[in-house]
């Protein structure tokens, strides 16, 4: 009986460990520290912890490092501009890699990302998608190698 209860406890623990929203999934990945800091600075944590679903094109820390430090620091201090940039990386709904099609895709920010698919590679605006289908309980994350800016 004890073995069964231990197995049930382990199953419950594993089940809850896998249920993570977009923000917690990004935090646990370890390569989105700047993105998580930006989401916090913009006051978007609760939104991205909400029911969604969301598709997030998430720039890595290396992608944010391509932005000159002064420009990034200024962006992090300008909540309105930061919100505009971050919501430009978010598409309503859960779009898995197999469902991505070339063309304009409306973002939460309001304008459209330009999605291109060439030779099996996918890009959004000028950023390459380098990893796909990181599942969260309220959507999916696709990793990109650059920060995209709304027009």
From TrEMBL:
SUPFAM superfamilies: FAS1 domain (SSF82153)
Annotated keywords: Signal
Any one GO cellular component localisation term in the record: extracellular space
InterPro entries (UniProt xref): Adhesion/Biosynth-related (IPR050904), FAS1_dom_sf (IPR036378), FAS1_domain (IPR000782)
Signal peptide: 1-19
Pfam families in the record: Fasciclin (PF02469)
Domain FAS1 per the UniProt entry, residue ranges: 19-148
PANTHER family noted in UniProt: FI19380P1, PERIOSTIN-RELATED
Name this polypeptide is given: FAS1 domain-containing protein
Species whose genome carries this gene: Pollutimonas subterranea
């Amino acid at each position: 009986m004890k073995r069964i209860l231990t197995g049930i406890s382990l199953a419950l623990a594993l089940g809850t460990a896998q249920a993570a929203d977009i923000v917690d999934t990004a935090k646990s990945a370890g390569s989105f520290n700047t993105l998580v800091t930006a989401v916090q600075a913009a006051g978007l944590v609760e939104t991205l912890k909400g029911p969604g679903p969301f598709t997030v094109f998430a720039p890595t820390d290396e992608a944010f490092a391509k932005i000159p430090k002064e420009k990034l620091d200024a962006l992090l201090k300008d909540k309105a501009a930061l919100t505009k940039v971050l919501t430009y990386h978010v598409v309503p709904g859960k779009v898995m890699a197999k469902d991505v099609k070339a063309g304009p895709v409306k973002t939460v920010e309001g304008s459209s990302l330009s999605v291109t698919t060439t030779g099996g590679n996918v890009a959004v605006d000028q950023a390459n998608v380098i990893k796909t289908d990181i599942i969260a309980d309220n959507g999916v994350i696709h990793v990109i190698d650059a920060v995209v800016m709304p027009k």
